[in-house]
TrEMBL record:
Signal peptide: none annotated. It comes from Sanguibacter inulinus. InterPro entries: VanY-like_core_dom, Zn_M74/Hedgehog-like. This is M15 family metallopeptidase. Keywords: Membrane, Transmembrane, Transmembrane helix. One of its GO terms (biological process) is proteolysis. The chain crosses the membrane at residues 20-47. Residues 58-67 have a biased composition (Low complexity). GO terms for molecular function: peptidase activity.
């Protein structure tokens, strides 16, 4: 009897454990498949994101290396690549145009910060001229030369490509007129100063934020413009 009792459950045990084993194998397979799926997904994700990062880097590098690799063509009409701002377009220092992306980064950041405060004051502040290619500056200078007749007179209004602070990306001309007055008052908070007495629109980083602007030069012939 004892033998029967003890042996009776025996046949069911292997069956149960067999089912359990099968379930365990099935569960294991499902889990393994899920894991493989997850791994594949994450691997794909990993592969994609470095790619995106790489291409983002490539594009930002190409923007940053404009100075050497993406110089505007030396012939044909001037384009945005020369720092030209399309007529009738109001752009701010944060715009995605070479005229502002090729500015000295510290100057651009200062103008962007000032623009943010001006906007809060209800005063729009646009960049009418930022960085210019040497060829663009040369054309402006040639036009001034034709207009004023002598180098001495022309240089009071337009700097040569060799001396222009626009070509070096260290100056911005801003507008409209009210923004010029606004920046004259608030610009020094950001280190921004009007540097030529005859160019109320022309600003450069010329002091430390909150500092005092240096005395203005009479006109661009004395340094840059
Ligand atoms: Zn200027």
């Amino acid at each position: 009897m004892q033998i029967t009792n003890s042996t009776a459950p025996r046949p069911t045990r292997p069956v149960r454990s067999g089912i359990l084993t099968l379930l365990a194998i099935l569960l294991g397979t499902v889990l393994a498949a899920a894991l493989v799926g997850l791994v594949l997904l994450s691997v794909t994700g990993w592969i994609q994101s470095p790619d995106e990062t790489a291409s983002a880097h490539t594009s930002s590098v190409s923007v940053g290396s404009d100075v050497t690799s993406d110089e505007p063509p030396q012939t044909g009409p001037l384009t945005e690549a020369d720092g030209l701002i399309p007529a009738g377009t109001d752009i701010t220092a944060g715009a995605d145009l070479p005229a502002v992306t090729r500015l000295n980064p510290a100057l651009r950041a200062a103008v962007e910060a000032a623009t943010a405060e001006a906007t809060l004051d209800g005063q729009p502040l646009y960049v009418t001229t930022g960085w210019r290619s040497a060829r663009y500056q040369g054309q402006l200078y040639d036009e001034a030369l034709a207009t004023y007749g002598s180098e001495e007179d022309a240089r009071q209004f337009v700097a040569t490509p060799e001396t222009s602070t626009h070509v070096t990306g260290t100056a911005v001309d801003i507008g409209p007129l009210d923004a010029m007055y606004w920046l004259l008052e608030h610009g020094p908070d950001y280190g921004l100063c009007q540097t030529y007495a005859n160019e109320i629109w022309h600003f450069e980083l010329a002091t430390t934020p909150g500092g005092t602007c240096p005395e203005m030069l009479p006109d661009a012939s004395h340094l840059g413009g």
